[in-house]
Automatic annotation (TrEMBL):
Source organism of this protein record: Pseudosulfitobacter pseudonitzschiae
Keywords linked to the UniProt accession: Copper, FAD, Flavoprotein, Metal-binding, Nitrate assimilation, Oxidoreductase, Periplasm, Plasmid, Repeat, Signal
Domain Plastocyanin-like per the UniProt entry, residue ranges: 78-190, 207-356
CDD domains: CuRO_1_CuNIR_like
Pfam families registered for this protein in UniProt: Cu-oxidase, Cu-oxidase_3
First-tier enzyme category under EC: oxidoreductase
Binding site for Cu cation: 125, 130, 165-166, 176, 181, 337
UniProt main location, coarse: periplasm
Organism taxonomic ancestry: Bacteria, Pseudomonadati, Pseudomonadota, Alphaproteobacteria, Rhodobacterales
Domain of life: Bacteria
Protein name: Copper-containing nitrite reductase
EC code(s) of this entry: 1.7.2.1
Gene Ontology biological process terms, A to Z: denitrification pathway; nitrate assimilation
Cofactor note: Binds 1 Cu(+) ion.
Amino acid sequence: MLTRRAALMGAASFAALPAMTRAASAEEIMDTSMVEPVDLSNLKRIKRKLVRPPEVHAHEQVAPGAPRIVEFEMQIVEKEVEVDNGAYLQAMTFNGSIPGPLMVVHEGDYVELTLFNSPENMMQHNIDFHAATGALGGGSLTLVNPGEKATLRFKATRPGTFVYHCAPGGPMIPWHVVSGMAGAIMVLPRDGLKDHEGKPVKYDRVFYIGENDFYVPKDENGSYKRFADVGESYPDTLEVMNGLIPSHVVFNGKVGALTGDNALQAAQGEKVLFVHSQANRDTRPHLIGGHGDLVWERGKFNNLPERDLETWFIAGGSAGAALYKFLQPGVYAYVNHNLIEAVNLGATAHVVVEGDWNNDLMEQVQAPVEYNATHEGRTALP
């Protein structure tokens, strides 16, 4: 139903935002105020403090009891982000991070999110949960102007990993997504994860990796442009976006976000769950030197996991999960196995694993030495 507030929001947006942007159409904003609210007063409430990816907030792998209302707060932050040396993105973010933080609940729980649009922001924003049912995934019930907040509650009815993203309407949707406004939620089965035989599986740690494709414009000299604010960046960014060739493909917001001093840390013998999301483009994660012991490629825990995968596929607009037990120490590269995007555009993470080397799994029988090419190596040829 079209509301007076919807009409006012549309009018205010046209007046306040640059001419090239379009507010979400008023028809997309629903009014459910006449519907009798559901009585959930008998359910326990808990609050979860979201943390910056790749870390994930504290949670139980097996639900401790009856369904609960899990409360989250998230603030929308528009800010400039340096995605690579000299390449600056006018970013739009959930909670100031790219990707937005991972939320974890259990099937049957209620997710209750209060979304704040900071007064200093320029744009309307909202949140579309792929895990939710109805109202554009919550997008039509959470459309907030700068300085406004809204609270959405939905029941987590399907276990799995799901994307959430901003979807304020029309051409604003892809722009907001490729400017950083996407994250993921993991809905665990109440009795925890199961392997291909239905046996319980637990992880020792979980890492959340959000992959982004960015479209940073260049000037006539080939240098990256820098803009005063998000509104000013729109026309040039749109032109690059429509060419469908990203300037950067990165994990967690920037080149090198998960390498070097920022590398992920694990220990030999640990089972690590990798949750990987891509809200816009297809991708293909690969752990160099390891495997996907159990892989929920489409991220849905009602489906049996694939086993022993070398590379797995994450469809654009979805999130997947892969479990691996690290058997050897060393530095593992976790990459998008379009190696051009991994090496040249930035989609690489490192996992540093401590432990003792096992020569039974891999042994250097002979270190590199020079050889006599006249007599050696010829038998290798067909």
